[in-house]
Amino acid sequence: MFELPVRPGPEPRTRGPIPHGQLNQISPTTMQEELWQRMRSLPGVYLAPTHVPYPEARAIHLAPEFGTGPEDAFIKRSREFAHLHPQQDGSLHMTLPQLVKKEVTEAGWGIPHPIQNTQLVYGPRDREEMETVWKILLESYAYARGKSTQV
């Protein structure tokens, strides 16, 4: 079973549905960049524009031979499964299995997108939060690869 610690403090303010993002408690730029480097280094990942109306977002896509997950493991029937919002926001959207979405929401790490199949995950504010956000992102990656045990 996928479990997360409860995110400390109040949840950040958000906006949306389009664009959907985080308004305060912004992740430090250095953490955003570290997270981006981790995201883009996953095996089978390639970089391409996002398929959502937030052109400044940096998206990761999964090559077909790596991505054998269900249709809803990808954003808008593309190969994209996650993207990182611009520095003034620092949150992410990603696809996740339903049980993981529920845990992310209940533990206070994010909220479902109001009109898409993605989950908004709040940007990490410190090193400990970085590891939790990375754990969530790895679930998105496993889901897109067809290897999630949380479905």
TrEMBL record:
Stored InterPro entries: Luciferase, Luciferase_dom
Source taxon at top rank: Bacteria
Pfam families: Luciferase
Region (Disordered): 1-24
Stretches assigned to the Luciferase domain: 79-137
Name assigned to this protein: Phospholipase/carboxylesterase
The species this protein was found in: Amycolatopsis xylanica
